[in-house]
C-alpha cells in the first residue's frame, strides 16, 4: 500500500468516532471505556520454527513472535499477540504503519510467511478500572480473574456475539484491550456501554 | 381462623417496619422480613389457592420452594407474573397478589364441582376421554380444560424489566447456605480459594434461621451472622443470596438465577431485576438441604395442614403462629421439636405418632411440656372445608395395614404433619448421579461419587445440625485442596448442641396410612401430589393398568410435574407404587431429576439479548451517510445494507427505477464494502485456489481478476466471487456478503484437515477494505476527476486492477462489472470509506451521480442474467443447471465437487435449469417463489392444504383433477426500467430446451402466462462494459 499522506490521515474516521462521547459519558472511576483508533496492526503468518521468519519479525519489531499459546510480548511501544500456532498480530502506534509494513513484508514473505496490513480491519477498545472485569464478565466466558488471566494473556473469543481478541495489559487497575472488527465495533461498544451502566458514577 | 397470629416478639422480622399489601383485593399488614406466606399466616389466612383438577381449597404447607399449593399471581399489567409461590415472595410495601386457578373467586369456585365428579376424573381421564378424537381435543376439549385447569395468566405486554447475565469461575462453588453450606464455604475460604456461595433465600443460614442450636458455644443465629460477615469480608469470596442454582451440568457448569429486585422498583441496565449466573467451578459442594414429606392419609390437603418444619419456621423465623390448637402427626423423632416449640408458645398440642414406641427422652420432654402423646395412630379423616376443624384418629391393627378400635376426634385449627425428610439430591442427579435408598433414614441418598462434586448435610441424608456442620467443614476444605489450594491448618471442629434426635434410626416409614377404607373405595382423597391432585387411588389405578414403571406412573398420574416438580410428593408416590407392586423402594427407583430446580422467568433467560442487542448489527464505514440520505435498509446476514434511497414522495418502485436509470445512462454508486474478502498467501496459493474453484486460478496473471464459482462436495454451487492476483504468491478473493464467514471456515477446514501439505495462509480482510462501486457510462468521467491514473480501456483493461491515489487516498481500483455497465470498484482502507464516498458524491454532483442500493443492484444484474448465490441457487443447482459450464475447468485434475458433477442425478436431462421469463402481462411483476406449471390451472381448482389455524390441523381441500406437476419456480422478478417491462429469472425443468414456450404461474386469484427466454435480457453482446 502506498504511504499515507498527511491529508489522507486527516480524512480517517474511526469506527467508534460517532459514539466516543457516549463511551466517555459511561466511564467512571470504576471503569473507563475508550477507543484507541488507527493503531497499526499487521497480521503475521509463518512457521515459528524457522529462524528466518523469527529474524524477519524481530528485526522489524524488536522482538520475536511469542511461541507460548495465548500470550503477548512487548517491546517498547510495539507488541505481538499470539493468535494461533502460525498466526500473530503485530501492534504498533499510529504513524508506524507504512514503515513497519515495508520492513516486514519482504523478509517475512521470503521466509515463507506473510505480513498483511490489518490496521483498518479492527479497532481497539480499552476497558480499564477496578470493575473492568465486572463489565466483561457479563458476556465473556473466559475466567478473567488475575490468577487465571494475568497481564500478557491473549485469547480469541466472543463478546456480545462479536469475535474479538482480548488482551490483558495491566493489573493496577485491571486493563483489557479488545480488538474488534470494524463492522462489529459499534455493536460491541453499545453492549459495553450497557454493561458498564451498573458501574457508572 | 381470624385475628392476629403474630407473636409479640421473636423471629427475624422487623416490627418497626410495617408493610401494607393486598391479597385477593383485601388489605393486610406484614413486616419487613416476612414472606407473603408468613404475612398471610400472621393474619390468619391459610386459604391461598384452589387445586388444579378438583379445585379443592388449599393452604400453605411448606415455607420454601417446595410448597405445592400456594401459587399466586403477583403484580399487575406488564409486570404481572403468574404462579409464584407465596412462600418465596419477600413481602414489600404495596405488594398486590391474587390467587390463581379460581373462578369466579377463591371462596366460591365453580370448578369445585369437579370434586363431585371426582370418581370419573381418575388418572388417565383426559387421555381416555378426549384423545380418541384429535379434532375434538384441539378445538374444544383442550382449550376448555386449559382454561379450567391453567394456573396464572401470562402477561400480554412485553416485559418492561431488565435482566442480565454474568459468567464467572471459581475454585469451590457451594450450593446452599444452611449449616453445611456455611461451614463448607468457611473451610474453603480459609485456604484462600475463590469461593462462591449461593442460597435461594434472602438470608443465609437455611434451617438455622428457624432452629434453636448452639454452634461452637454460640447461639446459632450469632454463628450464622459471624460466618457470613467473615465470608463477606474475604476478598475471594462471592456471596449470592436470593440465588437459586437451577441446574448442574457437565464439567461443573452451573446456571443460577439471582433475584436482585424483589419489589416494584423499576429495573434498568444499571440495576437489573434478575441476573443469570453462569458458573464454572473446579469443585462443587452441594449443601442444598432436604425437603420434608407429608403423610398420605384421608383428606390430607385441608388448609391449615402444614409440614412440621414449616410450622417451626413460621413460628421461630417469622413470629407467626400457624395454629392455636394443633395436632402433630408424625412417623419420626425430628418433628417433636415443632411440638415442643408450639407448646412453648402456648399452643395446645397433641402428638399422634404412627410408631408403637417412641424414645423415652422424647416422651419425657412431651410430658414436661404438657403435650398428650398417642402412639400407633393413623388419621382416618379430616374435616373442615376451607380450614381444618377436626381430625379423626384410630389405632392401627397388629399388621399395621388396617385400623382397629374406636375413632377419636380431636378439634384443632392446625394439623402439623411430618413423614420424614428427602434429601434435595436434584443437582447431584442432573449430572447423572445415582441414588440408593437408606432404610435407616428412610430416604434416597446420593450413592455415586463424581469427581469435583460433594454432597453434604441434608443433601447427603445427614439431617442433624451436628452432622451438617461436620460434613461442611471437611468437604469445604477437601474441595479447596482438590481445586489446587494449599490446605494449611485443618478447620477447628465446631461442637453443636440442641439436636433433638439422632441422624439414623429416628424414623419408621409409613407411606400410606391405614384408613377405614382403601383409597380407591373411599370418598376421601389421599393426596400424594398436591399440585396435580394426584391421590393414592390414582397410583393404584396406574399400577392396575400396567403403568407400574415409575416413569410410566408419573406420566399417567402427573405425579411430579408442575412448578414444584414433586418436591413434596415424589417419594411418597413411588413408595406407594413400590408397596402396590411388591417391590422395594430401591427397585422402584425415582423419576429423572432435570433442570431447572425451580421455574425460571423467560426474561431472565433472554438477558440483555433483546431489542437491538439481540444480534450484532454490522455496518460499513459509510453507514452514517446512508442513514442521513434517508436510505431504507435491508438485512443481509448481520449487515445493514442500503436497500434503496427514496427521495421525498417516492415509492420504492419509483426510487429503484430512478436508480437503475442513473446506473444505465449516467453514473450510480454502490457501497460494496460488505463483500467477504480473504487474502490467500503462500507458495501454494494458486494450487489451493485451483482446488476450491471450478475454474483455473493459478494461471491468472498478476494484476488480473477472474470470476470464480465454488461448489460443495456434492457438486452444488455454494458461493461465487472474484480472485485477484496481487503477487505471485498472493491472491485476494471475495465472497458473497452472507457467505463470508462460512467460506472462510470451509477453506480453513480444507487447509487444516485435507491438505495440510499445502503452504497457504488465509487472512480475513473483509473490514480492511471499504469498497465503492462506480457504475455507468459516466463512471470513467467521474473517476478521472479523482485520480491521475489513466482509466481508458487501453490503459485499464476489463478484469484487471491497479493501485492509485483516489481523492488523495491510497486505493486499489478494480475493473469489474456486476451491472453490465462500465464499472470501477474502488477499495480504500475501511477508515477512509466515508471520505471516498463523499469525494465521489461531490465530484459527480454535476453528473447526477446517484447512490443505489441492493434492490437496484439486483435488478441490474438480473437484466444481465447474473446469478446471486442464495437467490437463484438453493444448494441443489450445479453449474450446468445455471448454464455456467463455461466456468468449469475441463483441464484440472480435480476440484471440490468435480466428481459429483458426473453422478447420474447431476447429469439427468430433466434437471431444473436457469431461464429468463417474460410475463405476457408486461406490467405485472410476478412474485418471487411463484410455482411454474404447464397447465393454466387456478389454485382453487387444485387439491391443496390450507394452512392450519392457531390450534387446528391443516385442512385438505379436495379439488378437481389430479395434482399438477410443478416444473420449477421464479427465483428473481423485477420491473426493468431499461426494458420498460417486467421480467424474471426462474428455474424450469429442461428449461434451456424450452425457450419460446409458455409456462404458467398460478397465483391464487389469477394465473400468469410467461414466455421462457434466454436469461440475458440486456446488452447480450456486452458492448457497454467499456463505456
Descriptive account of the structure:
The complex is a heterodimer of chains A (201) and B (1027). Chain A has 201 residues and is an alpha+beta fold. Chain A folds into 2 domains: 103 residues, Gyrase A, domain 2, CATH 3.30.1360.120; 80 residues, Heterotetrameric sarcosine oxidase (Alpha-Beta Plaits, 2-Layer Sandwich), CATH 3.30.70.1520. In chain A, 28% of the residues lie in helices and 31% in strands. Chain A is built from 6 helices and 10 strands. In chain A, the strands form 2 sheets. Chain A has a 5-stranded antiparallel beta sheet. A 5-stranded antiparallel beta sheet of chain A has the order 3-4-5-2-6. In chain A, helix 3 runs antiparallel to helix 4. Chain A is globular, with a radius of gyration of 17 Å. The mean pLDDT of chain A is 94. Chain B is of the alpha+beta class and 1027 residues long. Chain B folds into 7 domains: 156 residues, 2Fe-2S iron-sulphur cluster binding domain, sarcosine oxidase, alpha subunit, N-terminal domain (Ubiquitin-like (UB roll), Roll), CATH 3.10.20; 203 residues, FAD/NAD(P)-binding domain, CATH 3.50.50; 126 residues, FAD/NAD(P)-binding domain (3-Layer(bba) Sandwich); 65 residues, Arc Repressor Mutant, subunit A (Orthogonal Bundle); 129 residues, 2-Layer Sandwich (Gyrase A, domain 2); 90 residues, Aminomethyltransferase beta-barrel domains (Alpha-Beta Plaits, 2-Layer Sandwich), CATH 3.30.70.1400; 110 residues, Elongation Factor Tu (Ef-tu), domain 3, CATH 2.40.30. Chain B is built from 23 helices and 52 strands. In chain B, the strands form 14 sheets. In chain B, strands 8, 9, 12, 13, 14, 15 and 28 form a 7-stranded mixed beta sheet that branches. In chain B, a hairpin with a 5-residue loop joins strand 36 and strand 37. Chain B is elongated, with a radius of gyration of 38 Å.
